[in-house]
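An instance follows:
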Amino acid sequence: MIKTKVLLVDDEQDFTSVLAERMETRGLQVDIAGSGMEAMERVKGRSYDAIVLDLAMPEMDGIETLKHLLAQNPDLQVILLTGRATVEKGVEAVKHGAVEFLQKPADIETLVEKIREAQAKKVFLFEKRVEKSISEIVRKKGW
C-alpha cells in the first residue's frame, strides 16, 4: 500500500519530531522542513499529498511560504497549523489557498483526517487534469 506523503514545515524541531512520529504511527510518510525556504526546496521534484505548514516562523512566515508554494504548484494541498490563531489570519490563509487552518495543539486524529481529505482532493485534481489532457488529445486527433 502506498503511504500518504506529508511535508511538515515548522521551525520548532521538538514539535516537528514528535508530530512526525505520531503521524508515522498512523501510516503517513513524513518529511520535515525547518523553514519556508527549505519547504520550497523540498517540493521541487517531489510530490506530497499534503503540506502541514506553521504560520509563525522566522524569516518567512506561513502565509508568505503558502503564497510561494502555491506559485510553484497550485495543486498543493496546504494545511496551516498555528499556536497563534486569529480569525483574520485564518481568513487570509484560506483566501491565499490553504485548504484548512488548525490551531496547535491540533488533535492528531483531526489532523490526519484533514490530511486524508487533502490527499483525496489532490487525486481529484490530478484525475481532472488527466481527463482534460485526454479530451484535448482526442479532439486534436479527431477520434
Summary: The domain at 4-141 is CATH 3.40.50.2300 (Rossmann fold). The helical segments are 13-24, 36-43, 62-72, 87-95, 108-141.
